[in-house]
Amino acid sequence: MRKRRHVARAVLATVTAGAVLGVAGCDAVGGNSPAPSGTEAQSARPSPKPTPAWDRSPASIAAVGDSITTGFDACTVLSDCPEVSWATGSSAQVDSLAVRLLGKTKAAQRSWNYAVTGARMADVAGQMARAVAREPELVTVMAGANDACRDTADAMTSVADFRTQFEDAMSTLRDALPKSQVYVASVPNLMRLWEQGRTNPLSKQVWKLGICPSMLSDPDSLTTLANQRRESVQERVEAYNKVLEEVCAKDRRCRFDDGAVYEFRFGTQQLSQWDWFHPSVNGQARLAEIAYRTVTN
């Protein structure tokens, strides 16, 4: 998040179906039969290549995104804590996606975290450019919260720009690594952050430092204007998630979490004790679980 700055599924059955169709085509023609012509020739043409099978056991992982993926404020105040990152962390308390997929030893050697605290979607293409140098078999993407968490609701990244920026990031990956897989996490539910922290005097004091003001400023205010402001931020987050889903769906080697992160009903136990905004160690572990389910199912 931006606290520091203000401060499919691949279808295996299609492979089998393609093989069956191929055998059926040979049997239909026969060794001594005349070559098909006309409509028969068209039906005898090879079927399109099947969708590539999703590899549930990639051998290397790179992560891009924002402060959620850097573990910001999970271990100490105002500090990144990459060892508890849901994507690539080494902490046994989190059991990160990399550790779950690669094992602890290989995860230390074959996973890389290029996320940057404060990053918005516009920054992800640059992170992706650094990640592709490692030639990872799986890239994780979690970004968008900072695009909604601005000084004002009017300053949020437009949906059109968000789409273009995410497409640019995907193109950066695809131009270099057409076969790498991508896991895309949805943007978290920012309205729920407000709901969880608005009755806590300490969290409200911390939020005054400038944490996601578009959603969290004046947390006690229930005026029409305040509620409309929060609703506009929430609607923008939902629009971002729709973009992530649509762009990912166009890529045969991309999996969106189907809104699992957004829909996760986190409580205060999953929030940082220092800012009641970023995930705690427990929250990072829950994100790792969601990612692992999406990648391996």
Model description:
Strands 2-1-3-4-5 form a five-stranded parallel sheet, sandwiched between helices. It has 297 residues and is α/β, with parallel strands linked by helices. The two termini are 29 Å apart. The radius of gyration is 23 Å and the shape is globular. The protein has helices spanning 12-29, 38-43, 67-70, 97-102, 104-110, 121-132, 145-148, 159-176, 190-197, 201-207, 213-216, 224-249, 260-263, 281-296; strands at 61-65, 111-113, 138-142, 181-184, 254-256. The protein contains 14 helices and five strands. The longest helix has 26 residues, at 224-249. Residues 34-45 have a biased composition (Polar residues). Keywords: Hydrolase, Signal. GO terms for molecular function: hydrolase activity. This is SGNH/GDSL hydrolase family protein. InterPro entries: GDSL, PLB1, SGNH_hydro_sf.
Strand and helix layout:
Layout: H1 12-29, H2 38-43, E1 61-65, H3 67-70, H4 97-102, H5 104-110, E2 111-113, H6 121-132, E3 138-142, H7 145-148, H8 159-176, E4 181-184, H9 190-197, H10 201-207, H11 213-216, H12 224-249, E5 254-256, H13 260-263, H14 281-296
Parallel strand pairs: 1-2, 1-3, 3-4, 4-5
Helix pairs in contact: 6-8, 8-12
GO molecular function: hydrolase activity
Pfam families: Lipase_GDSL (PF00657)
InterPro entries: GDSL, PLB1, SGNH_hydro_sf
